[in-house]
Design brief:
With 257 residues, the protein is an alpha/beta fold. The protein folds into two domains: 3-198, 2-enoyl-CoA Hydratase, Chain A, domain 1 (Alpha-Beta Complex); 202-248. It has eleven helices and nine strands. The chain has helices at 27-39, 63-69, 74-93, 109-115, 143-150, 153-161, 168-173, 186-198, 202-215, 220-235, 238-248, and strands spanning 3-8, 11-16, 47-52, 98-102, 105-107, 119-123, 127-129, 166-167, 179-181. The protein is globular. The chain starts with a strand and ends in a 9-residue tail after the last helix.
Length: 257
């Protein structure tokens, strides 16, 4: 089984099981992510973790498949890329936060998937690689957009134009990942972040994710309007009633699943 979704209490775990090929992308991995995002509409689910069963998170696309793709008309090539982009859009639009647990490293579209997540836990010494240029190719999967938001332009150029990998510790120093841990602790650390998410207000978290996503692309005036409307709505919700009461009563809020 090259990918599957595990239902674990209040979270879903997407396992990339293509260990023999360093977690290279498969249709099953795409579908597992899409299935998990759809299943997260269930209010019991509070977080999704995306990880791998092998020692490498995801090595990206199969170059042999790209050789075959060269013979397709350009519109069909676009359709193939859109399959990956649908996965990225699904992660971005997921109703609950998504945690990437990166073992070994993430390359190409694997890096795109990891960097599209809300929280990123990575193994010490692991690397993000965007070496498309070494095969005469260009990044896809929203990778340039993610890098532009997360790291300085010179480093993005180094990664994409020269194809040089960036080690986990450097990404942590830049604030582009949340935690760097020993390899055997990656999954456990991802659950720590999922636990923290699960204690919070699900609906407010979802709105905040959407607000942060738009903040990179629209004007401050438009963002202020969005924040005004979101706050006016949130104040009237049950989550706010519980959160405010808990704060005033000096107790932990109980938002439920």
């Amino acid at each position: 089984m090259s990918a599957y979704v595990e239902d674990a209490m209040d979270r879903l775990i997407v396992w990339n099981g293509n260990a023999d090929k360093r977690g290279a992308l498969t249709p099953e991995f795409y579908q597992a992510i899409m299935d998990a995002v759809e299943a997260a509409k269930d209010r019991r689910i509070r977080a999704i973790i995306i990880t791998s069963q092998g020692g490498f998170f995801c090595a990206g696309g199969d170059l042999n498949a790209l050789i075959e793709r060269r013979g397709l008309p350009e519109p069909e090539r676009r359709e193939k890329v859109e399959l990956l982009h649908d996965v990225i859009r699904a992660i971005r639009a997921c109703p609950v936060p998504v945690v990437a647990a990166v073992k070994g490293g993430a390359a190409g579209a694997g890096a795109s998937i990891a960097l599209a997540c809300d929280f990123i836990v990575i193994q010490a010494g692991a690397k993000f690689t965007a070496a498309y240029v070494k095969a005469g190719l260009v990044p896809d999967g929203g990778l340039t957009a993610s890098l532009a938001r997360m790291i300085p332009r010179p480093l993005a150029m180094e990664m994409c134009v020269l194809g040089r990998p960036v080690v986990a510790e450097r990404m942590l120093a830049l604030g582009a990942v949340n935690a760097v841990v020993d390899g055997e602790q990656v999954i456990a650390e991802a659950h720590v972040w999922a636990d923290a998410v699960a204690l919070g207000p699900r609906d407010a978290q979802g709105r905040i994710r959407s607000m942060i996503a738009t903040a990179y692309d629209q004007s401050e005036a438009a963002q202020l309007d969005l924040e005004r409307d979101a706050m006016a709505f949130a104040v009237g919700e049950d989550e706010a009633a519980e959160g405010i009461a808990a704060f005033l009563e000096k107790r932990k809020p109980e938002y439920g699943g």
